[in-house]
Amino acid sequence: MAAPEQTAVRAETPAPLAPTKSASRLDLRLAGLLGVLVLLCVVGYVTRPESFLTEANISTMLRLAAAIGVVSVGMTFVIISGGIDLSVGSIVALASVWATTLATQAYGPVVMVLCALLVGLACGMVNGVLISYGKIVPFIATLAMYASARGLAERISGRRTQVVSETGFTDFFRGDFLGVPILIWMLALVFAVGWVLLNRTTFGRRTFAVGGNAEAARLAGIDVKRHTALVYGIAGLCCGIAAIMVIARTTSGASTNGLFYELDAIAAVVIGGTLLSGGRGTLIGTLIGVLIFTVLNSIFTQNNLDTDIQNIAKGVIIVAAVLLQRTTSRRNADKT
Amino acid sequence: MAAPEQTAVRAETPAPLAPTKSASRLDLRLAGLLGVLVLLCVVGYVTRPESFLTEANISTMLRLAAAIGVVSVGMTFVIISGGIDLSVGSIVALASVWATTLATQAYGPVVMVLCALLVGLACGMVNGVLISYGKIVPFIATLAMYASARGLAERISGRRTQVVSETGFTDFFRGDFLGVPILIWMLALVFAVGWVLLNRTTFGRRTFAVGGNAEAARLAGIDVKRHTALVYGIAGLCCGIAAIMVIARTTSGASTNGLFYELDAIAAVVIGGTLLSGGRGTLIGTLIGVLIFTVLNSIFTQNNLDTDIQNIAKGVIIVAAVLLQRTTSRRNADKT
Amino acid sequence: MRAISLVNQAAACEVSHQEEADLLLAMTGIGKSFPGVRALDGVDLVVEPGEVHCLLGQNGAGKSTLIKVLAGAHQPDEGEIRWQGEPVRLSSPVAALRLGVATMYQELDLVPGVSVAENIFLGHEPARFGFARKAAARTATAALMRRLGHPEIHPDREVGTLSAAGQQLVSMARALAHDARLIVMDEPTAALASDEVDNLFRIVAELTADGVAIVYISHRLEEIRRIGSRVTVIKDGRTVATGLPADTPTAELVDLMSGRKVETVFPHRDETTVDPTTEVLRVEGLSRRGEFADVGFTVHAGEIVGIAGLVGAGRSEILETIAGARRPDKGTVTVDGKRLRPGSVGAAVRAGVGLAPEERKSQALLLDLPLAHNVTLASLPAYSTAGYLDRAREHRDAKATLERLELRPADPRRLVGTFSGGNQQKAVVARWLVHGCRVLLLDEPTRGVDVGARAELYRLIRELAASGVAVVLVSSEVPEVLGLADRVLVLREGHVVADRPADDLTEAAVLDCVMEGHVMTGSAHALDPEEAI
Amino acid sequence: TSNEAPGSTNTAAVAGQTGENSAPGAPVTIGFSAPAADHGWMAAMTKNARAQAEQFSEVTFKATEGTNDVNQQIAQVETLINEAVDVLVILPFDGKALTAVGKQAMDAGIPVINVDRVFDTALAYRTWIGGDNYRMGVNAGNYIGQQMKAKNIANPVIGEVAGIDSLPLTQQRSKGFADALAGHGFKVGPRVSAQFTPESGEQQTANLLQGAPKLDALWNHDDDQGIGVLAAIDSASRSEFIMVGGAGSKNMMDLIKADSGVVKATVLYSPSMASSAIALARLLGQSKGLGDLAEHEVPASITTYSAVVTKENVDQYMDVGFDS
Ligand SMILES: Nc1ncnc2c1ncn2[C@@H]1O[C@H](COP(=O)(O)OP(=O)(O)OP(=O)(O)O)[C@@H](O)[C@H]1O
Ligand SMILES: Nc1ncnc2c1ncn2[C@@H]1O[C@H](COP(=O)(O)OP(=O)(O)OP(=O)(O)O)[C@@H](O)[C@H]1O
Ligand SMILES: [Mg+2]
Ligand SMILES: [Mg+2]
Hints:
The complex is a heterotetramer, with two copies of chain A (336 residues), one copy of chain C (533 residues) and one copy of chain D (324 residues).
Chain A: H1 3-6, H2 24-47, H3 55-80, H4 88-98, H5 102-106, H6 109-132, H7 138-157, E1 162-163, H8 167-173, E2 176-177, E3 180-181, H9 182-200, H10 202-212, H11 214-219, H12 224-250, E4 252-253, H13 261-271, H14 283-302, H15 307-335
Antiparallel strand pairs in A: 1-4, 2-3
Chain C: H1 9-14, E1 25-34, E2 37-47, E3 52-56, H2 63-70, E4 78-83, E5 86-87, H3 93-99, E6 101-104, H4 116-120, E7 127-128, E8 131-132, H5 134-147, H6 164-177, E9 182-186, H7 194-209, E10 213-217, H8 221-227, E11 230-235, E12 238-245, H9 250-258, E13 275-288, E14 292-301, E15 304-309, H10 315-322, E16 330-335, E17 338-339, H11 345-350, E18 353-356, H12 360-364, H13 371-375, E19 384-385, E20 388-389, H14 391-404, H15 421-435, E21 439-443, H16 451-466, E22 470-474, H17 478-484, E23 487-492, E24 495-501, H18 507-515
Helix pairs in contact in C: 5-6, 14-15, 15-16
Chain D: E1 28-33, H1 40-55, E2 59-64, H2 70-82, E3 87-90, H3 95-107, E4 112-115, E5 127-130, H4 133-150, E6 158-162, H5 168-183, E7 188-193, H6 198-211, E8 217-220, H7 223-235, E9 242-247, H8 250-258, E10 263-268, H9 272-285, E11 301-303, E12 308-310, H10 314-317
Parallel strand pairs in D: 1-2, 1-3, 3-4, 4-5, 5-11, 6-7, 6-8, 8-9, 9-10
Antiparallel strand pairs in D: 10-12
Helix pairs in contact in D: 1-9, 2-3, 4-5, 6-7
One magnesium ion (MG) binds at residues 63-64, 106, 186 of chain C.
């Protein structure tokens, strides 16, 4: 969208022999972002030295970050591929509701998990097919899903919060493994798998190509439509995983789950340095983006700040973070 | 986002067979859109023949459409210029609160109106300056405003709904002129002024240029930064006008006003055929887009549909409208 | 129309020894329509192994469309394609690539955000179980780049940071990576300087020696003379001649392409229109760190000053700085005796400076807007009272200007994106003509423009100068600079190394001056002046 | 596909099944407008209203389904006025914002029953029925205060998980809570505000618990978000405090009855008021009074009582417990 920057003239002498590594500028951005995160942690520690950097609080923050983190992984793929997904929150709601109906719960935990994943994947694929084969712009197609999926979730649940009585499910997902909560393991795993998929497989590299120049990708023989559909499928699957996490955390499924996830996820991805116009981005940046918002929230709550002050501060901090991040990366870039 | 279209090769025989009129494809889209609107009206009439197309109901629908319609006018400018504004709802809230504090009300209706307009304009200009001179991408800059403005509205109002006791204000804005409610006049006026500004002035022409190719606009001597700032200022001003309308309708100002206006406005603009990537769009399309959503709502209400069904149907109808609109315009294009 | 001669002696000699008379590719009666346009209307193309088959035609004749059909990117409405005698259906780009047809498209078809190696192997990445084997791709890329004579382009480098020439090399490497039997090159030299062109031709020669066939598209006839085996001419979507020898006289080729007589490709200088008493543009001590330093010159009314130099010498940057699009570190620009505010395009435009930038699509045109809106973009204040546009006058003036430029079709309501390259370039010039500018800065005005349209542009530039405008012309084609300009500046690595009247210079002299001591100069074969007609 | 067991009767509270007034009267069309039924309590309100209307054969029920956009709700009420219903039952998203349209209806001769969130002027409604948010907070505060006294805790840390902070009802509840605690010489400690949803309840409580290593009591405004609050408490393995709920969901009452966890009580804010509102609307439409009162007319204002439900009296209130 920031057309002025993007269309800036780029030309280059054939002369410079030093190969500019493709990642270096990105690395600097990430360093700036990490700086913002560390700064926030310092603020948290200074204001609440007794409780902020405790193991318990870190574990709490990470568990809070888990669901939105997983959704943001999927969102990163979508945005890198040049799209946008407004429906993630609604898909989380639908998957969480569908996986916790009495009927589903009766089949036991495995079926509940499969149900959430399948519902997420299916919704994502519907988005993908509408966008790639139906040629509906992503904003509109996922806006439609945004309305429909939540409506369906309300319909299925009768707008009741469905409590999970299936203890096998809650025991497992609310439990620990090697002293670390399962939710945090899941978050780590999704990030790791996402990272490998994005950076180490042909699928991931093609995602960059589709987002960077879809026509070039098509001419190079990539099935852009199928690829686009799959990317939204991945985003949907991530919503399914997030739904499992939300069910585990709240021991219930409700059509009100996942409210505002779309804004939170997009904000985390964009703060993380992924271009909204596609073709460029990192999952590490997204992870840091998610953590920044989580830490911010924790600081606010622990310091007993009013919601109104929280909101005002949030806006100011977003702007400050972006500006700070840019200044650091520019200063360093000048040095090299 | 739809990169394939943009990168498609465009060249032309010196001896073309049929000179394609520039606007014709857009006109066809608009015709398709109008078809959708008419179709919805027919559905409304068939299901509720006794009440749907009555004068009272049409007036109700138009007054409901007024605030979001005005916001959508500003949003159309922003999107055509290649940006996005997520903060419109929050700005409406802030302006409505600021204009209805006891202190403001004490100065009388004129000051209240000016206050709403100024607050809207100021917020818009802050957005604009952050985006153009601060070089923060529109999504992030307006996301920050989205959080901050609502926070500030909560702070100012102490989260209380502020009742307007200034009867001069309510009497005027809730009144009629020549038998038509003032709110509808205002909507018509804003649309007319917006249309002239967009299609008949240098400002509008430059807006298309900045959104279509910011670098080309810059090299042609247009001050792209100042222009961008002004466009967001206009969007803010529209929010101020919408705030006045909301105050008139609710006879109060509250920090909860304008919830989800950003999504509704963007949806109306995009359904109306304006490209999210900028450079192309019409205000007529936006108006029809707003009306489609309003009529939809009225049909749902009058037919006593459950919210969940409403949501599901809304999604389906959005997709259907886009597909329908495309098929009609393609079929007609083939004929010529 | 002249008779079509399918069998050609000269070409036959060059066909590689193993597959004597066997045809590699035969496309017959290919037709393709787009909404409202019949782009191809029965094109025939026959390619033998090991030949360089040149496609000629005006802008919009259908060359790129034809090769997109061949590449599987467009589906033809009618016609037959035979590959080594077998009928084939090229349903997708993959099908064509499998067959052995690799294509370098006219529009750079690279992904800017990813690395050189990934661009080259996009769609056919070396992979194991879906995991990309980056090391393998890197090694192969490095080898390809060495083969192309540019080992300094690192496989990990982001393609978006390369110059146009560098990107063209990556495209080339990608075509080579496919091990193709037929490589299609659509205007590969449009963005290349002469030494890079030599390098490209060396590789073409290597390929044809291996029996690979090349389909070569270019608007530069002298290139066709140097490497072409046979020529096919396309006009309005039809083949009008095929199997012509590469040394067919220029007049004859131009005649076939345009259906009318164009005397010369490059202009000959007439008597000068310079008014030495009126200095319009004065540039003094202009510098930008890392781009150019201490550039100074003056241009008088009616004078055309040409700037020659290698790609990357900083010519575009100088023009952009004069136009206010870049802020100089030092130095001043004076127009009609008034100093311009540095770094403000608006101030420059108001003072009458117009820039026709290098990349017309990304820097000059609003492809989705009508021609009239594009043409008046810089003069909006003149067409409005208190901001309200006088659209009737705007339309009238635009139309008059378009007719004066013989821009076809001169319909101001038509979207710019639907015009051919040459006509788009005229639209850019029309913008400044409408504005009534004092100084016109032209950056590569004839890139990608066909011979017929070129001649018209030259005439137009001359006319402008004659009306008292000061023109600065940047071009990579030395004969063009020499033929048009009254005075020539030669730029090397951001410094002006020569400033002389054009009459004192020959092409060889300019090239010598341009090349001398340049890092990249591997083989300094200058274009032979004889070849350039 | 819901958790509701088939044939379950206590999902909706209904009134007016006995006495003289239960006999069918003249036909009445009742228009109903409420905010979006996006959480348990609000969903129960809508459902109760519908269920109550179905009890009366002569009542035609026109519900416009909810929205949290006041502008939309105004349009919905206007639509109902245009349709000339006999009585309007309005639960405004924001009482002050809908005052004008309420007045418009009254001016058009349609009596308005204002439910819960009160209009700004009595001119805008014929009868108001609703809970007392301030007293709800007071009752919660008093209960906690007494428990703390009983346990002899001198300086208790008392937490609060509020609902949507920008709603007046939340502010009233919090004020009542703070005032009552002050009466016992205590004050509110850590406070967070959630969104009336289980997910937000869990998130906010998780953070609250981290900020407060030790708690003695916790009041949660809403039993629907309480599901999340309890999940967070469970995750943090905390049990050193007592928790009091709000509104009175069936789920929470079951927990109180079982007495196995931190939940010891809940303060009613029962959605049964919606059922009563419909019953009153019918009476208004038929120009009848309330049977047990001496008045000829339906009273102008009825405030429901926010009883504290504890283990001792829970059975008595099970029938008004709503599905969260
Ligand atoms: N995707 C498309 N949609 C519509 N028309 C098209 C499309 N691509 C090409 N055309 C039309 O087909 C005709 C042939 O265009 P083409 O690009 O093949 O010309 P060309 O010979 O390559 O010209 P140039 O020398 O300028 O590159 C032109 O009239 C052009 O407008
Ligand atoms: N956007 C940019 N960022 C960094 N360096 C740039 C940029 N644009 C140009 N340069 C540098 O400026 C110098 C000259 O650029 P350029 O290639 O445009 O020269 P030129 O003489 O105009 O060549 P051409 O023949 O392509 O017009 C080069 O060293 C190039 O690397
Ligand atoms: Mg071409
Ligand atoms: Mg250049």
